[in-house]
Amino acid sequence: MGNYITHYVVCNLGILKPLYINKSLSNVKILVIKSSINGHQSQTNTLIEYYLNQRKLQGYKDSVIEHDVESVPLPVLTHQRFHALRGAQTDDAELLSTIQLSDQLIAELKRTDILVLGAPMYNLNVPTQLKNWFDMVVRAKHTFFYTDSYPQGLVNNVKALIVSARGGIHQGQPTDAITPYLTAALGLMGINDVHFVYAEGLDMKPEGYLAGVAKAQQQLKDYLHIDI
C-alpha cells in the first residue's frame, strides 16, 4: 500500500485549467481517479485524457494528481478494516497502514477543486476498483458526520465530473445503477455539484460507437465553460 502513494502523476498527462473562470484561480487542483480494467484501450480513460488535453489547449496550468486504482489496487473493505477506519483501537500494522492510506486519500480529496472520476459501466454498475476508492474516502467523522436527522458532508467546495463509457444505452433507464450510486455517495460527503458525461452505445458499432464518442467529447468541451 505504501507504493500506492507514489503512483501520483502530477502534471504530466495533459495539464490544464478550465473554462471561463475567475483568473485568480490560476492553479486549479484536479484529482483524477481512473478505474477501468482496460488500461490504455479504455474509452473512459481516453475521454478523461481528451478532457485534460482540452484544458491544456485553453492555456491553463492546473495541478493534477492521478490515481489508477486498477493498476495499483486499493484495499478491499473487510470487517476489521471497516471498524479500524471508524476509530476502533488497533495496533495491527496492516490496519494502521490502511488508516494512513485513507487519511491521505481524504486529504487529497479535500484539497481538490475538481474531482474527475472514470466510471465505466460493468454489469450495470461501477468497477469494483472504484468502489474500493469510495470505501477508503467515505468515512464517518472525516468526510461526513451523523446528525439527529441526516448525515452532513465535510468535503467543501469540490466539484465532480464523472466520465462513464457504456456499451449500450442506459442513461435515464433503470439499468443505470452508476448515476444514483455516485450521486448519493458524493452527496453524502458534501459533493453535490456533480456533472455526468456519458459515452453510450459504444458496442453498437460502427455508427453507435462513433456517435457515442463524439457526443461525449462535445459534452466535455461544453464542461470547460462551466464556471467553477
Automatic annotation (TrEMBL):
<dbReference type="InterPro" id="IPR029039">
    <property type="entry name" value="Flavoprotein-like_sf"/>
</dbReference>
<dbReference type="InterPro" id="IPR003680">
    <property type="entry name" value="Flavodoxin_fold"/>
</dbReference>
<feature type="domain" description="Flavodoxin-like fold">
    <location>
        <begin position="29"/>
        <end position="223"/>
    </location>
</feature>
<comment type="function">
    <text>Also exhibits azoreductase activity. Catalyzes the reductive cleavage of the azo bond in aromatic azo compounds to the corresponding amines.</text>
</comment>
<comment type="function">
    <text>Quinone reductase that provides resistance to thiol-specific stress caused by electrophilic quinones.</text>
</comment>
<keyword id="KW-0288">FMN</keyword>
<comment type="subunit">
    <text>Homodimer.</text>
</comment>
<feature type="binding site">
    <location>
        <position position="36"/>
    </location>
    <ligand>
        <name>FMN</name>
    </ligand>
</feature>
<feature type="binding site">
    <location>
        <begin position="121"/>
        <end position="124"/>
    </location>
    <ligand>
        <name>FMN</name>
    </ligand>
</feature>
<keyword id="KW-0520">NAD</keyword>
<comment type="similarity">
    <text>Belongs to the azoreductase type 1 family.</text>
</comment>
<dbReference type="Pfam" id="PF02525">
    <property type="entry name" value="Flavodoxin_2"/>
</dbReference>
<keyword id="KW-0285">Flavoprotein</keyword>
<dbReference type="InterPro" id="IPR050104">
    <property type="entry name" value="FMN-dep_NADH:Q_OxRdtase_AzoR1"/>
</dbReference>
<dbReference type="InterPro" id="IPR023048">
    <property type="entry name" value="NADH:quinone_OxRdtase_FMN_depd"/>
</dbReference>
<keyword id="KW-0560">Oxidoreductase</keyword>
<protein>
    <recommendedName>
        <fullName>FMN dependent NADH:quinone oxidoreductase</fullName>
        <ecNumber>1.6.5.-</ecNumber>
        <ecNumber>1.7.1.17</ecNumber>
    </recommendedName>
</protein>
